[in-house]
Prior knowledge:
Largest sheet of chain A: 5 strands, mixed
Structural class of chain A: alpha+beta
Helix content of chain A: 25-40%
Distance between the termini of chain B: 23 Å
Radius of gyration of chain A: 27 Å
Radius of gyration of chain B: 24 Å
Oligomer: heterodimer
Shape of chain A: globular
Order of helices and strands of chain B: HHHHHHHHHHHHHHHHHHH
Structural class of chain B: mainly alpha
Largest sheet of chain B: none
Strand content of chain A: 15-25%
Number of helices of chain A: 9
CATH superfamily of chain B: Formate dehydrogenase/DMSO reductase domain
Number of strands of chain A: 13
CATH topology of the largest domain in chain A: Alpha-Beta Plaits
Amino acid sequence: MKNSEKDSSRRKFILNFGSLGISSLLVSPIIIQSCRTNLKEVGSGDKEKLLNSNNELVEVDSAYISTLNKNLAKNHNSESRKGLPGKKFVLVVDLAKCKNARKCMDKCQAVHQLRPEQHHLNVLIMKDNDHTAPYFMPKHCQHCDNPPCVKVCPVDATFKRSDGIVLIDNERCIGCRFCIAACPYSARSFNWYEPRDSEKYKDIPYDIEKNVPQKKGTVTKCTFSADCLREGKLPYCVSSCPNGVYYFGNEYEDSVTNGTSGETVSLKILLSKNAGYRLMEDLGTAPSVYYLPPKDRALMPDIENSNS
Amino acid sequence: MNDLYRKEQQIEKEQFQEIVTTLTFPMNHISPYFKLWIGFLLSLIGTAAVMYVRQLRYGLGTTDMRDIASWGLYFSDFVFLIAVSLVGSLITAILRLSNIKWATPLTRISEIIAVTALLSALAIIVVDMGRPDRLWHIFIYGRLQSPIVWDIIVVITYLVISLLLLYLPLIPDIALLQKKMGHKPGWQQRMYKILSLGWQGTKDQFKILNFSLTVLMVLIIPMAFSIHTVTSWLFASTLRPGWDSTIFGPYFVAGAFMVGAASVIVTMYFIRMQYKFEEYITDEHFNMMGKLLVLTSLVYLYFNLNEFMVPAYKMKSGESANIRGLLVGDYALMFWLVQILGMIVPILLMVFKLFRKPKPLLVISVFIVIGAFFKRYLIVTPTLLHPFLPIQNYPASYHHYSPTWSECTIVIGSIAAIALLISLFIKLFPIIPIWETAHEKGISNETINNS
């Protein structure tokens, strides 16, 4: 009996003490907040112009500006799942201009830390039938509007954003490779081994939009260079092409920009004038990548002979 | 009058005693061969485990799977094991619900095959994952729109029902073992005591047992069809030539019943031979299983005709490369061996009674089981190696897939694990149901309970 009384008084004490602690924890931010308000009233008078996340130019007193830790990987990646507002990205590949320079492939493999046999972007030599001339066809992920890969992913690791981009989260992927089996364009690659230079990049936080660093046992794919797009730049492959093969832009604005010449043209006119088409339209995948037919093919004769 | 009754009871008691002695024989005799057999299986599983650790260390690059052939032997093995597990529902549920009595001694064999094959299938699919450490992601991020999630749901449901169908009919036998196995080590007796759930063998208990069994048998049929249909959808839900087929569900289910029946024949042959169960697993059982196997094989033959003849007739652009590869190309030898030796010849032979005798039927069943494994391989691999777009800028090895030693060892380990589990089960529980056999011989419950 006595013991239990003792116990209950001890419990009471702990309870009281605990609630004191909790209340002090609750109060302290208020105190800190009040200190901050004081600071606000002072200000420095210097204004700085900043671009906020809604793409609006705003002015802020420099006293209130503090540098954010850029490595808030988690926040950054949840934002990456949404897509850029008001955008629907399209890529147009002019097959008539491709000379197999492969600068796009090299740049892509370098940026995405891929092994030489891993392709986010693969320049294929195509020959439709025995009687027509061969041509080069750069093949990216088609960023389908009805993506077979996204449908089959069991864990929502690969997903479709509002701006049309299909990305993969290498921190969620379980490596079942169902998406590779489902993709009719063979656009996906798997990290069968420890990725290239993994030792070098092991401390870098994961960036879902760039899809680096690569992770062993997960699927990797073309990102349409979503990291560049967020900064308002053209994708890596588009801007590295020396031959003006790629046009990239926003379908909603009906404008695409050539990565080599910088010329901006109407998407609709470009496609209709040149009889643009999409790969395997009959599958119903609705790609975001368009091809312009390889008229006046720029194929070099030696490759024409060496390839079957 | 009283004397006669007592005499009858005495005879019944002796008869039951004989049944118990024969059916518990495997549990009381452990031969040196058995130990050798277990050692052999353990060494196979051990090698597989070592190879798996190596795979975890270096990544799936230790297999020959690459970006083009991204599924291979593991996945074929998974589909094969799921197919084998379907037999549990065929023998226990479909035959029993249709009031077919002859299959009673085979129910437990087929149910243990079903359970162990399922467990092994679950293990091999984890082996196939690039990131097994993230298995829990399926449960926290799982999305119902993926056929993989459907598959997990139906496979786990099927496993639970199969376990119940294995366990519930075991309860009266375990209660009996509790009385008969006094000489066994303590842990084993404790296990029997816990697992028997205080079974008394009263009329009410049998009523509940039989009712639950009927419910489970009805439930397991749609689940069995689901597991293999959904597994076939892992292929059929893609756009690839060779997989993009609407008959994949029934095609897979038919094939599963065939390989399942064949694997029961193989298992029952060895159990009968090893433990002299000729009285319980008779030649007539082989005869009937042979007939069942002919039936299931004919259904499968019909689906094969549909699956290959129709696309081969049309030679659609996407399909033709894959069909050519199977019929006359790289995979032609394996394809025709599987179709002829694993299906057509067995059907022709088994039509004759002579080939439904135990020994010939065993040989035929072994051919069917091996054929069925390679059939799954032929469904998985050639399609992946014939994508829509040309395979370029990859190392030459990407154009082919030939499983590495590591993959083969692990797959052999997955089969050895099934054999090990079944072998151990036989030493702990009666593989032929005692009480059901006794009931069928007209022995009353009193005799069973008072023995």
